[in-house]
Amino acid sequence: MKVRRAVSRLAAVGVLGVTARGIAARRRALDAVAPALRHPLLFLPLNVTAVTLALCRRLPAASGASRPGIRVTEQTVPAGLGSPAGTVLVYEPPRRTRPSGALLWIHGGGTVMGSVKGCHAWCARVADELGALVISVDYRLAPENPYPAALDDCYHALRWLHDNAADLGLDTARVAVGGESGGGGLAAALAQRAHDTDVPVCFQLLAYPMLDDRTVLRTRDHSRGVFAWTPTSNRFAWTAYLGHPPREHDNRPYLAAARRGDLTGLPPAWIGVGDLDLFHAEDVDYAHRLRAAGAGCELHTEPGMYHAADVLLDGKAPAMTTFRTRMLDALRPRLTTQD
Asked: Which of 153, 265, 285, 304 is buried deepest, with most CB atoms within 10 A?
């Protein structure tokens, strides 16, 4: 009942911006969406703004079912000077062979919303099917906590994981980082910071990552960003995270992964993105740059997929089930065997 009420209120906000012309335009845009990925919510121009953010945050997270035998515990992560202690959820599979690999997972939400609850089923699946430890980071959100709060929280969690590897039963050579959307962008920036501070990361698992704040400044490609995550949402989220509207020059370190000039030495990656996603161009470009730098990157572009369609249609569209399985397959050799 709570979920239905929250969705209805969010839909009502979207309806305020609907016109007959707008509906017709969205119908035409839907022709590009794979038939199995179409959903009634796609008819509404839903944007994350200062007005809608509070409502979006109140939407209950669809956590999904866990896996039998998976033990989930909450751990406190010490922070650096001037930062509060953080929290992570640790997913422990039954009969894990120690030392095992581990995945540090960062939830999506454009750095302004989302929670560890929303990726509960995914983290449990990774732990169960790969026999690995999964650590899900409950990082601070913008705009209340702008850059570098979220990245600091993720970095402290990664350091905690390495510092406690013996107690956790981990092989520090098999620690991967990953995330979706805003979490994917944080994971990519985290891999850079880890590389520069000699904290081992073996792999980056990036689902439609939010990599480049300068996308806000570029001419809009009207065929992308129509559904789920729009240019309006992107501008709001980056402004919240940066502490000011995006601008061409901003030299703060690890601000946005795509701003880094030299990608040499970074761990290999898997990047998956839909061809209708607002992040398509920045994700494809980053994949090509990783390859050119010798890091290696497997790029998967899903036809007819908009941003986070796999989350919206979890378990309801075979193509999205396959998309998530591709992620798992890319991660498996990194966590279950040594290179």
From this structure: 153
